[in-house]
## 1
Amino acid sequence: MKKYLTYLSIGILIGITLFKSEAASWFRIYEMFKFQSFHMYGIIGSALFLGIICIQFIKRNNLKSFYKETIVIPAKEKGFYRYFIGGTIFGLGWALAGACPGPMYVLLGAGFFNILIVIAFALLGTYLYGVFKDKLPH
Amino acid sequence: MDIIFQPWPWYISGPLIAIGMFLLLLAGKTFGMSSNLKTMCSILGAGKKVKFFQYDWTAYKWNLVVVLGTIIGGFIAANLLSSNLNVNISPASVAELNSLGFKSAGKAYLPTELFNLSALKDIKTLIILAIGGVLIGFGTRYAGGCTSGHAITGLSNLQLPSLIAVIGFFVGGLIMINLIFPLIF
């Protein structure tokens, strides 16, 4: 139970940050893909800068989790097509709906209920991938 | 205190997202939001027909709890931590969006033309949100991750597949906004 409280708190921190940073705003996504502001690049860039340092710190010090387990970041399997084609398809949707899978839920909490349509159809899209998975290049 | 109620600058937000990822790693988990869609498909019974969804989803309950947290976080941020929800995008973006018909640009958090409940009376709004959703769900699962799993965690871990995926995100986004938006709006 205490574990779940930890996950919930981290989720709340991330949710508040995604909303307050305006990364959950359709307008900011538009502006990003038009290169008309540094804002989103600043968010992603600074998250990466600190993220790389954090992960290197974990690896070099062999840091254990709060629960004394070894921290493993599962490596993504090698490939090109799935990442490039899948990534491009996601990019099309990200720009159209103006939300990616984190901000979707943040917007729901913020009271923008039309996002439920995006979430419901994202479930359908995920299901369709499961159906066609073996026919797609990976 | 006023600083909290204003939109947060990138140099505060970006590092906070990285801290979120770091805390999750310290809690033994990897930051990735799109896999929740797969988990929800499994819970809804997709595994009965499609092998991809046949697995023990209870191992991913923790991630649904993270989702619940982000919903609560969105509620807190919008209702308790904001004095004004308008997103102050660049004047160039406002001008372009106005000419595309988005009069709410610069005056709202999301375009009212797509996200007001009354906008759903227009079938076009429904179609746009639905297609956006399908592309997000299909694309993230195909690519094995979204912004959190690839752009934040994967790139922070210096993984080549994540770099390819993020390049794809941008190819898709640039095509949508520069080539397709002028056709549909």
## 2
Amino acid sequence: MILLATLISYPRAIILGLLQGVAELFPVSSLGHSVILPKLFGWDIHQNDKYFLTFLVATHLATAIVLLGFFWRDWVRILKGIGRSLRDREIRADDTDAKLGWLLIVGTIPAGILGLALEHKLRAVFASATSAAVFLTLNGLLLYGTERLRRRAPDTEGDDDTRIARKMSWRGAVLVGAAQALALIPGLSRSGATMGGGLLVGLSNKDAARFAFLLATPIIGAAAILKLPELFGPEGDGVRGPALVGALCSAVTAYLAVRFLMRFFETKTLTPFAIYCFFAGLAATVYLVA
Amino acid sequence: MRNTKLLVAAAVVIGVALVVIGIVYLAEPAKSLPSFFPGHEAGSAHHHVKHGIASFFVGLAAFAFAWFQTGPKNKTA
């Protein structure tokens, strides 16, 4: 246990927590960064180690709580909308909250199924820092590609949720949800995939980011809650303290990140993140291979 | 109309099957799962809780689909 405690020391927990909160929501792959950076720093941490997964559970749960809190009023409206639609047995065209709620449910189903089916296989195959660096480069190309391929000037009429409900089809929600499974490969970003998917179905950057964050909340939260017993069980011994510190750091940066991104995407695009991922991934690949 | 009825019946059947499968996953360890179930593993006492929850919720989604398809709007259409 002493050995485990030294593997994630408190300073490392703080760095990894701060990084996790930012990278989970920025479209730059948190998993990729948490695989590549320990390797670059020479830390003896591997993404498939039990204690590291337990640490990640805590930071993911913190991120999910922050997202839930940030969009709390929206979630209340959305849940009321779902309730209304179930009562009336129809999703009325003018009921934006109900449509958005069901779009989120429809998008979450493929993400959940693909996550269950592929999580262990993909993480086992792409566990190395080098493959994460290569996929980070690819993530940059994907982000740039989606910006280039977006169909037309985004719709700016009405409020955010009305635009999302109007633009996003059921099939689009399935595809965007399924795209989240790309994040199972370290180096590819969940929020990048969902934002990119949103752009391709005609959303603005801001609406795509909003939909991506709403879609991410139940998946990140559920995955963390299901693994919570590991944190409080024997597997959490020796890592519980650093995990709590990491989670607090992650919560702070996640809050700042979501606040920043919602303003950033009002006027800006995914291109800066694409450039960062491409060059950071390329540099890390060269460094790790050499 | 006939197609809708068939779709609703299929959704209900699938929903019931998935909810039952979800309960089996939650109740039985991997060694006791039917061999054609994903996650079956001889000798393993591990419970596939996530499989169970996923199956249960997709079953509920199938029921929700049937519920909307038989709503007032679809009946008058």
